[in-house]
Every structure is written in C-alpha cells, then in structure tokens.
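Fill in residues.
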C-alpha cells in the first residue's frame, strides 16, 4: 500500500473504483485523465497536498428524481431524471441533457467529468455539469415528448438558474426538446432568462449554436493538419452518426473541399463512395431531424449499400470523425483504420474511442484529437449564448463563426503547448493538462471546500 503522499495511478484508481462501484464509463474517463495528471500533480505538490484530483473526481452534488407523465393512450409512464452538478469552480454548472434509454449515473458522471476540462479549455467562465433521463424520444409523438419535457423540467427547475446551472442539449435533446423545456421553465419561474442554451433564434438562441460542435471539430482538425503542414482539400473522410454533431461536421468538411464517404446511425452505416454533397446532406438532415427515420432510407433513395448494425471504420479513409456516442471505435477498428491509411482522427462525440484504440493511434503517431478539445465548440458557443442573453444582444453569424474559430485555434495551441513530445504532439495530454490547471488553481484559491 503506497504512503498517502505517494500518488500512483493504481492506488488512485482503486480508490475511485471502490467509491463508485460498477460505473465503468466513469472509471474509463477518469483513468484517461489521471494517467496524465498524476505525473503532473507529482511535479506540483500544491495540488497533491490539497487533494485536488480526489476533489475533482467527486461531483459537488447529484440530483436524481422521478419523472411521471402520461402517454397518448392515457397510460402513466415513469422515468428517472438526473442532474450531476460536477464542478463550479470557474463558473455556473454547464453541460447537456441526454435523453436515451441507456442513460445511467455512470454515463452522466463520465460526461460531467469530461466537461470540467472541456469547459475550462474554452477560456469561458463555465463550470461543469451533465444530466438527462432514461427516456427514449424515439417513436414518441410530439405531444408525448412535450409532456415528458414539461414533467422533467418541473423538477429540474428547482435546481438550475442562469447563474447556477445552465443545461443544453445532447443525444436525444435537440431544438424541439429544448423549446419544450425552456417554455416550461419560463412558465414556472415567471422570468425570461438564458437558463437553457441551444434555444430557438426567436427566443434568445444564438446563431451558429446548432452548427458549433461539428464546425468546431473540423476547425480543430484543420489546425492539426496545418501544423504538419497539410490540409483538408480532397481528403476522404468517414463520419459516424448522423445527428447534430455529425451533420455539421459533414457540412464543414464538404465546404472545405473534403469528401465525406460514410455516415451512420444506431441501425447501421451508409457508404457513399462518390461522396455526400450538400444536396444529399440536406436529405439526411431532413430524414433525421424532421422525419426521424433510419439512414437506411437514404441508402434506398440514392441506391447505395446500407450496412445494417455495423460501424463505418472498415471503410478506407484518410480522416475519421466518430460523432455518434461513447465507445464506438475500439482497438480492432483503430487497427483497421491504420491499416487502411488513416492519418487523423478527431472526436466529435464524447469518449467515442476506447483507451486501447487511442493507444493504437498514438503508437502509430497519427493525429488524434480527444473530444474534450475537438468538440468544445458546442459548449463554447453555448457560453457565448449566455453572454448574449445577459447583455440582451445577439451577434451575427460572421461574428460568432469567427469567435468559434478563434476558440478552436486557441484550444489547439494550448494542446500543442502542453502536449508536445520529441517527435509527436500528444493532444490527449495537452488537453488534460491545459484544462486542469485553471480549475485546479481556482479550487486552491477557495481553500478547503
Ligand atoms: P444526436 O441525438 O443529435 O445524434 C446522435 C447520433 O448518434 C444519431 O445518429 C444516433 O442514431 C447515433 N447514436 C446514438 N446512440 C447510438 C448508439 N448507442 N449506437 C450507435 N449510434 C448511436 O446527438 P448529438 O449529435 O448531439 O451528440 C452526438 C455525440 O456528440 C454525443 O457523444 C454527445 O455527447 C456529443 N456532443 C454533443 C454536443 C452537442 O452540441 N450536441 C457537444 C459536444 C459533444 P439514431 O438516430 O439512430 O438514434
């Protein structure tokens, strides 16, 4: 057993696992970060003495509640709602809400923990949280989704506020759900404040918010390539997912001259060797956000092969963008990508790449951007939505796109500053160390809390 003042990864992780049994996604997210931060903390004893890593891995509080609503047949339905308020050292809790049947505490704690570093990297004054419910919006009518969102917000409204906790969207929570929840919050509180982000443009939403995560991810890849130096022109790209992040990552790649050859959803992937152009992408956006159907319909319409229940990583490409969900790219798939000549991967989703797959990419010394850096554009523009709401102004597309781009360039630079090795830039190390110091220093300044 090591002495208390001798911090090792093994000892740290065994304590974390004992305190959070069975929470495998949370263990995975902490291990990825702690692998880099434990040697860093060892160099700066002030963090170790104050037990900053132990404090940072324990959420400030977790709220769990029953959500009761009625379906269209008049049946009473019960779901479980959550909000993990992880860390508010540098600003109000901020992070998305996820509605998906797989939602549990482990997933929300991993997402909330990642958010600490991501939000810090944006340089904006935003803390970290995450929430959601095990509710499945798929197959529900708009009225059912509305009743669920109103019931969910009736409880959540007691715990959030523009200076306390500002939720946004995530998987299963898009413009429709945010609108229903914001409407209910406004009704309950009798106030019009920017307590949710991702709102409609008519009621306080920010331009570019819908595009921000996907666009930001591509801006980040552009910076990594520029550093080589290389560029996106003509590069073949595989994307997983066809939701919010994937749609706008695809659009920016197309606009910048790259070729998008796959997209996917939970039913499988479509391979379009000619490339998905803007017209085809509009078909996909309509299919996924309006008709809410499977990508198989896209394959049918354009007479392409649909690979049912498979992921796109066996398709040869130069760049890969996992933009669907956690742990959707494993070590074997990473090896297939490398074998087929892939030179860069940027995560649009949160933790889509397993630890084994990250190691495979790093051993091969290809470009690899972790989500906490490459998908930070979404929360960054959410932070800018909060600012616009506070000053009761709205900025133009051009202004916001420029700010988003500048933030992604700045995050890239921080990763280079903190992650440069002899002949390789370890972007995972760079993002973890750069994200850590600002939050850790704020926590130190507050004393023992
Ligand atoms: P959406 O709900 O808009 O889209 C999710 C996409 O992923 C859909 O294509 C969905 O398929 C697919 N998907 C979801 N679960 C699975 C699964 N278990 N297996 C295979 N495919 C799956 O979500 P977002 O685009 O907003 O989020 C995608 C990822 O990006 C998540 O990891 C999220 O945390 C992360 N992220 C999102 C941000 C944002 O601003 N929205 C910000 C930063 C990160 P189907 O349509 O069949 O359900």
């Amino acid at each position: 057993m090591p002495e208390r003042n001798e911090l090792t990864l093994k000892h740290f992780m065994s304590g974390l696992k004992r305190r959070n049994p069975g929470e495998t996604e949370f263990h995975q997210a902490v291990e990825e970060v702690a692998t880099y931060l434990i040697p860093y903390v060892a160099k700066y004893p002030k963090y170790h003495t104050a037990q900053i890593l132990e404090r940072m891995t324990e959420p400030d509080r977790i709220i769990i509640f029953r959500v009761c609503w009625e379906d269209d047949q008049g049946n009473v339905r019960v779901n479980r709602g959550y909000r993990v308020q992880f860390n508010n050292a540098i600003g109000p809790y901020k992070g998305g809400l996820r509605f998906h049947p797989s939602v549990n505490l482990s997933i929300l704690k991993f997402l909330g923990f990642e958010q600490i570093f991501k939000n810090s990297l944006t340089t904006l004054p935003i803390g970290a949280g995450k929430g959601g419910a095990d509710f499945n919006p798929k197959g529900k009518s708009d009225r059912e989704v509305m009743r669920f969102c109103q019931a969910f917000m009736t409880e959540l409204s007691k715990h959030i506020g523009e200076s306390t906790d500002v939720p946004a969207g995530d998987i299963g929570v898009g413009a429709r759900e945010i609108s229903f929840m914001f409407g209910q919050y406004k009704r309950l509180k009798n106030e019009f404040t920017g307590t949710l982000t991702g709102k409609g443009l008519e009621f306080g939403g920010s331009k570019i918010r819908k595009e921000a995560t996907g666009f930001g991810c591509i801006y980040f890849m552009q910076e990594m390539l520029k550093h080589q130096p290389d560029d996106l022109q003509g590069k073949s790209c595989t994307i997983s997912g066809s939701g919010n992040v994937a749609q706008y990552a695809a659009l920016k790649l197309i606009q910048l001259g790259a070729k998008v050859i796959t997209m996917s959803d939970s039913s499988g992937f479509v391979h379009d060797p000619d490339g998905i152009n803007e017209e085809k992408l509009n078909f996909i956006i309509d299919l996924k956000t309006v008709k809410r159907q499977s990508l198989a319909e896209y394959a049918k319409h354009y007479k392409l092969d649909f690979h049912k229940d498979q992921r796109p990583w066996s398709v040869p490409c130069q760049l890969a963008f996992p933009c669907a969900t956690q742990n959707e790219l494993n070590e074997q798939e990473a090896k297939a990508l490398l074998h087929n000549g892939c030179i860069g991967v940027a995560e649009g989703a949160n933790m889509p790449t397993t630890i084994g797959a990250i190691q495979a990419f790093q051993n091969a010394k290809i470009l690899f951007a972790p989500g906490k850096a490459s998908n930070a554009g979404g929360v960054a523009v959410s932070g800018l939505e909060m600012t616009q709401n506070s000053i009761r102004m709205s900025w133009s597309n051009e202004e916001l796109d420029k700010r988003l781009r500048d933030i992604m360039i700045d995050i890239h630079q921080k990763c280079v500053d903190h992650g440069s090795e002899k002949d390789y830039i370890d972007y995972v190390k760079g993002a973890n160390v750069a994200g850590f110091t600002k939050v850790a220093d704020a926590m130190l300044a507050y004393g023992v809390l």
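The CA atoms of residues 253 and 306 lie 22 Å apart.
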